[in-house]
Automatic annotation (TrEMBL):
It comes from the Bacteria. GO terms for molecular function: mannose-1-phosphate guanylyltransferase (GTP) activity. InterPro entries: Mannose-6P_isomerase_type2 (IPR051161), NTP_transferase_dom (IPR005835), Nucleotide-diphossugar_trans (IPR029044). It comes from Syntrophomonas wolfei. Residues 27-106 form the Nucleotidyl transferase domain. Gene3D superfamilies: Spore Coat Polysaccharide Biosynthesis Protein SpsA, Chain A. This is Nucleotidyl transferase domain-containing protein. GO terms for biological process: GDP-mannose biosynthetic process.
Amino acid sequence: MLNQGNIWGKLKHRINVRSKWRFPMIAVVLAGGKGLRLWPESRQTRPKQLCKFVDGKTMLDHTIDRLMTAGSSRVIIITNDSLLPGINELVQQRGDKEKIEILSEPE
């Protein structure tokens, strides 16, 4: 018979944030909405993800910053074709762009 309590104790130790051994964290950000509730601040040409609200940064910038601070090794942004140019431009301006991947799906 397998001692499940012992296995859980070992697994709990391995996934403990304070331990030296950690799983890489990959974050997924859903950024495909139109932001209709924020109109007129957001527009079809400037969706809410790309609106600058605090400290001259976009909502998407703040989200990526929080994820990197939390220990994400990689961020995957899922968006749609119409928002792809703006999101791609934002990512290219970041210093950590090599850790960010954009996946676009057709509308």
